[in-house]
């Protein structure tokens, strides 16, 4: 019997060793044909990573921890159902993101050459899946460690609720397990639209059940991994040790997800993986050449919902209307027609529009938290930067009319309106929707934190909406990267032209962060009783600066149109 088992094991090793040897040989050939990095290139990349970590990452982590130290101690065991539902919804979003990519990834050459060979699929995807899950676990552990440090700093003045070393390591493990669970949800989302939809709806239903179960009794949660993570966090806030059962539930769920990773990845359709690889390759090409808008547009899906919806404009327009800009006043109903057209475009992309709504409502909730309790200037500036950046990044789904009119600003107009007036009319729909969504977030904050402070934040909601829409207008008018920025920049450390492309691509988010930090610092001081006159005047000056910046990007298009005419 033992000889038979030995023979079977030897045969299995031979079967596995053959594909492994073939795969290793193919990778050696590919590595030999590719460009190899010199020792100088490797040392320069290490130097760049170290300097970036010291100059950018370390101050950002420090400020984030200090800002979170004033907020995290208040999220105790009573908030466990809400925290569990939030983490569950994040996993649902990760499952929906599986349509754009996930742990099972491969390049086009590998998909075309190796996936058709007699090599097991799991062996081809082993490296990418392991790296993805490892990165997710490491990122979750880092985030858990940051939360543990922030909580320890926030509870430093409370001797009865101090974090022990074991609790800190438990929070590290919680972060790592949550990262693994999110990766597993994303891998399930890669299987297909039916599985993706079922997983997302199931997690949304679980989040609703968590909220309903915890509504009857404060702090009561279900026996699922996300509720276990929330309970562990609740024990950490009051200084008690976590229950071992909660750790076992969370760790066991993460272990099951890890064990199922390779079998699920090996069952993925090659055509679906190839479509995702082609999308990522084209998006990477656009991003490297300094066109982030086109890169993000590659991830959009064709409109499937609402194609039968039509726009009724009322009376038929005259056929002999002179469409030159400024030739005659615009028809009075054109404002309404453009707003209807923008709303129709929003209805035809329900998934992206709902994602934008969720992001902006969350931004409104964070903005209202500025007025709930007094904060220092650093914390207020950080929260303001998150609010404006989140609103600006969520708005593109509602600003397709702005992007279309900005793209045709230098061409002959189809309407008897100047390009600036057309762009201005297309800002009405996203501006009104942003004000409503941010106001809804402030209303949620008023329900969570009873009092007049959260309601007072609704008075400043239009300011955030106007700033975000102006930033979207400036981004739409940005145009393509100048060729001079793509020219080589030889330095002793190598070609630095990529730095120009990087700065060109990130100017909008950087301006959004700076504007949000300024608004957060100003209105956080006003919410603490510092008066509203100075914030109003400085906010008006900020709006004037952003408007001038957007108009400066529109002027070249106007000059080109005048020259063409």
Write the layout of secondary structure elements.
Layout: H1 2-33, H2 39-69, H3 80-97, H4 108-113, H5 121-154, H6 165-189, H7 193-216, H8 225-237, H9 244-259, H10 261-266, H11 270-288, H12 292-297, H13 334-347, H14 350-369, H15 377-394, H16 400-407, H17 419-426, H18 428-448, H19 452-456, H20 461-476, H21 483-486, E1 490-491, E2 494-495, H22 497-505, H23 507-530, H24 533-564
Antiparallel strand pairs: 1-2
Helix pairs in contact: 2-5, 2-15, 3-6, 3-7, 3-8, 5-6, 6-8, 6-9, 8-9, 14-15, 14-18, 15-20, 15-23, 16-17, 18-20, 20-23, 20-24, 23-24
Can you describe what's shown?
This protein is mainly α and 565 residues long. It has 24 helices and two strands. It has a two-stranded antiparallel ribbon with strand order 1-2. The C terminus is likely disordered.
What's a quick, concise take on this entry?
The chain is an all-alpha fold and 565 residues long. It is built from 24 helices and two strands. It is globular and about 70 Å long.
Give the tags.
single chain, about 575 residues, mainly alpha, two-stranded antiparallel ribbon
Strand content: under 5%
Give, in spatial order, the strands making up the sheet with the most strands.
1-2
Work out the helix count. 24
What is the share of helical residues? over 70%
Separation, N- and C-terminal Cα atoms? 92 Å
Question: Main β-sheet: number of strands, strand sense, barrel status?
Answer: 2 strands, antiparallel
Structural class: mainly alpha
Mean pLDDT: 77
Task: Say how many strands there are.
Answer: 2
Spatial extent as radius of gyration: 27 Å
Q: Indicate the low-confidence ranges by residue numbers.
A: 315-328, 560-565
Shape: globular
Order of helices and strands: HHHHHHHHHHHHHHHHHHHHHEEHHH
């Amino acid at each position: 019997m033992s000889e038979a088992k030995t023979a079977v094991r030897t045969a299995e090793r031979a079967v596995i060793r053959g594909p492994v040897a073939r795969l290793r040989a193919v990778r050696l050939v590919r590595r030999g044909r590719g460009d190899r990095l010199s020792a100088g290139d490797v040392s320069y990349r290490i130097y760049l990573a170290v300097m970036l970590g010291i100059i950018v990452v370390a101050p950002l982590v420090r400020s984030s921890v200090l800002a979170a130290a004033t907020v995290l101690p208040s999220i105790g065991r009573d908030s466990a159902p809400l925290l569990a539902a939030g983490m569950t919804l994040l996993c649902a979003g990760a499952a929906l993101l599986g349509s754009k990519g996930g742990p099972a990834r491969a390049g086009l050459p590998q998909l075309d050459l190796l996936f058709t060979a007699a090599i097991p699929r799991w062996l081809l995807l082993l490296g990418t899946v392991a790296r993805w899950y490892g990165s997710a676990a490491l990122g979750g552990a880092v985030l858990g460690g940051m939360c543990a440090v922030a909580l320890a700093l926030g509870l430093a003045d409370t001797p009865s609720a101090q974090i022990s070393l074991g609790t800190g390591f438990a929070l590290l493990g919680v972060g790592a397990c949550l990262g693994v669970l999110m990766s597993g949800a994303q891998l399930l989302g890669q299987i297909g639209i039916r599985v993706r939809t079922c997983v997302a709806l199931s997690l949304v239903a679980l989040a609703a059940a968590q909220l309903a179960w915890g509504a009857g009794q404060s702090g009561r949660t279900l026996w699922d991994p996300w509720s276990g993570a929330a309970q562990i966090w609740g024990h950490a806030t009051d200084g008690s040790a976590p229950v071992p059962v909660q750790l076992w539930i969370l760790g066991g769920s993460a272990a099951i997800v890890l064990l199922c990773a390779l079998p699920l990845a090996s069952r993925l359709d090659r055509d679906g993986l190839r479509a995702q690889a082609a999308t990522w390759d084209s998006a990477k090409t656009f991003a490297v050449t300094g066109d982030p808008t086109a890169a993000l547009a590659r991830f959009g899906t064709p409109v499937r919902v609402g194609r039968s919806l039509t726009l009724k404009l009322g009376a038929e327009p005259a056929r002999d209307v002179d469409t030159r800009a400024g030739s005659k006043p615009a028809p009075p109903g054109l404002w309404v027609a453009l707003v209807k057209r923008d709303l129709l475009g929003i209805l035809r992309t329900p998934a992206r529009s709902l994602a934008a709504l969720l992001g902006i409502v969350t931004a409104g909730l964070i903005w209202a938290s500025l007025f709930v309790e007094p904060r220092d200037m650093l914390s207020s500036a950080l929260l303001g930067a998150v609010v404006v950046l989140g609103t600006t990044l969520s708005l593109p789904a509602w600003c397709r009319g702005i992007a279309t009119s900005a793209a045709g600003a230098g061409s002959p107009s189809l309407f008897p309106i100047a390009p600036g007036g057309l762009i201005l009319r297309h800002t009405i729909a996203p501006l009104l929707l942003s004000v409503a969504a941010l106001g809804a977030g402030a209303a949620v904050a008023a329900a969570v934190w009873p009092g007049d402070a959260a309601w007072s934040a609704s008075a400043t909601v239009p300011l955030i909406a106007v700033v975000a829409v102006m930033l979207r207008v400036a981004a739409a008018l940005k145009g393509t990267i100048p060729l001079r920025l793509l020219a080589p920049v030889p330095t002793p450390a190598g070609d630095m032209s990529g730095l120009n492309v990087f700065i060109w691509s990130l100017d909008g988010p950087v301006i959004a962060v700076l504007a949000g930090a300024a608004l957060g610092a100003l209105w956080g001081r006003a919410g603490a009783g510092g008066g509203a006159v100075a914030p109003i005047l400085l906010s008006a000056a900020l709006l004037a600066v952003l408007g001038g910046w957007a108009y400066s990007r529109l002027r070249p298009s106007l000059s080109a149109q005048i020259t063409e005419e």
